[in-house]
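Researcher: Let's do a round of design. I'm pasting the structure tokens now; please hold your answer until I've finished.
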């Protein structure tokens, strides 16, 4: 209902959220969602700007202002899909090329501690395994462990039930273990 409609019907207009405050409050976890769905660091800022612009330019007020987080989540998912569609084949080709360049240019300086090297290899192994997961499962894992959220917090922010979050995380952890095992088998030297 617009302000004009409200004035004509005598109803009070729905309150408009303070989008700059809402985006500041929810920006960190939204960035994690976008990052999990895109897998391209350079694109996250561009999509976050699109989300901010769409929120500020929103034409229809929210029916329930307490559901801002779930609305922003759906908006983020939509903007990610639009970004991916817009980039199309060119983006996929550039992404593959950048990945090959990064993989081939991993020479490290001599003399760094072995612990750092092992930690970097483990992080790379986990990163590659997460990239093999379906986007929604990767998103759940990243939000759970990077934001340290409870099932309730995940459910509130993503607009799902706690049971759906619990089963989704269970499935995501199982698939991550399988992907890690596959990665380890692929990297083990053959006798």
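Researcher: That's everything. Go ahead.
Model: Designed sequence:
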């Amino acid at each position: 209902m617009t302000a004009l409609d409200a004035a004509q019907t005598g109803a009070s207009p729905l309150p408009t959220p303070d989008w700059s405050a809402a985006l500041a409050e929810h920006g960190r976890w939204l960035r994690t969602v976008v990052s999990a769905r895109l897998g391209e660091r350079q694109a996250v800022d561009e999509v976050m700007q699109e989300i901010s612009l769409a929120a500020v330019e929103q034409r229809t007020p929210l029916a329930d202002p307490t559901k801002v987080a779930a609305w922003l989540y759906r908006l983020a998912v939509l903007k990610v899909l639009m970004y991916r569609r817009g980039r199309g084949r060119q983006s996929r080709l550039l992404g593959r090329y950048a990945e090959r360049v990064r993989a081939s240019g991993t020479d490290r300086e001599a003399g760094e501690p072995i612990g750092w090297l092992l930690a970097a290899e483990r992080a790379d192994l986990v990163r590659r395994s997460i990239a093999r997961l379906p986007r929604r499962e990767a998103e759940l894992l990243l939000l759970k462990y990077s934001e340290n959220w409870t099932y309730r917090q995940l459910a509130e922010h993503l607009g799902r039930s706690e049971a759906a979050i619990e089963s989704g995380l269970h499935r995501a952890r199982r698939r991550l273990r399988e992907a890690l095992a596959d990665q380890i088998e692929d990297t083990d030297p053959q006798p």
